[in-house]
Design brief:
The protein contains 6 helices and no strands. It is about 85% helix and about 0% strand. About 30% of the residues are buried. It starts with a helix and ends with a helix. It is mainly α and about 140 residues long.
Length: about 140
């Protein structure tokens, strides 16, 4: 197991604990980062990327920073593998929704409630199930 997968699992566990304590914003944050770390894990374990390669490519990528790179590069490779636009679009939609919820929780005067947190948890789990089915 690579360290990004471990970090991903730790963030998911933290999100559940935070949710149970009604700390919904921080829980959403952990769910988003759990997905992001899982994307990095896939790049390394499935598509043969190294941390050095990722670092170089991020420095050359001018369209979305590191988060955009992790998401877009993983989805591009998965799209080449599956060619199932519905599955790929569903992953993209859900990770983008998680990103918006994280940004709302961190940078806006929006309060994340249990309903939004439940949606985030559901999206996280669906992203994971889908990605595991593609591996």
């Amino acid at each position: 197991m690579n360290s990004y997968l471990t970090k991903s699992e730790i963030n998911k566990d933290a999100a559940v604990v935070l949710f149970e304590k009604s700390f919904y914003g921080p829980s959403v944050n952990c769910l988003y980062y759990s997905c992001l770390q899982y994307f990095i894990s896939i790049l390394i374990s499935k598509f043969g990327y190294t941390e050095d390669k990722i670092k170089v490519e991020i420095s050359l990528d001018k369209k979305g920073g590191s988060h955009g790179y992790y998401i877009n590069t993983t989805i591009r490779h998965l799209n080449e593998q599956t060619r199932d636009r519905g599955v790929i679009n569903n992953i993209r939609r859900k990770i983008n929704t998680l990103k918006v919820l994280r940004e709302d929780a961190e940078y806006k005067s929006i309060i994340i409630d249990s309903g939004k947190n439940s949606t985030a948890l559901s999206y996280h789990d669906e992203i994971f199930r889908t990605l595991r089915s593609l591996n």
